[in-house]
Input
Amino acid sequence: QVQLVESGGGLVQAGGSLRLSCAASGRTFSSYAMGWFRQAPGKERAFVAAITRSGGRTYYVDSVKGRFTISRDNAKNMVYLQMNSLKPEDTAVYYCAADRTVMEVAGTTEEKYDYWGQGTQVTVSS
Output
């Protein structure tokens, strides 16, 4: 089992940047594919980005490609989401999620992920 704690959210102006961090407990972090999801007010939670166990492959929703970068540091049990050129429509609660897998793939749907953090609020003002 893994526990996830997100941090790094906040209020930023449009065009600004934030880096979200997700700290994972446990000694088998490299056995998990990791994902970031977000839930905007009045909307369902949606996929943002994912990264495979080794960090060798990444996946993004089209709306964040070229602006967001997901990365991980398996030695530190951390996964990050660097968010640049933020837009008001990026405003949401951002969640980190983990999927224990033996394969070098990462899911892009909620159903693939077994463990979730509590979320961190990101607000982008216009």
Summary: The chain is about 0% helix and 50% strand. The radius of gyration is 13 Å. The first strand starts at residue 4 and ends at 7. The mean pLDDT is 97.
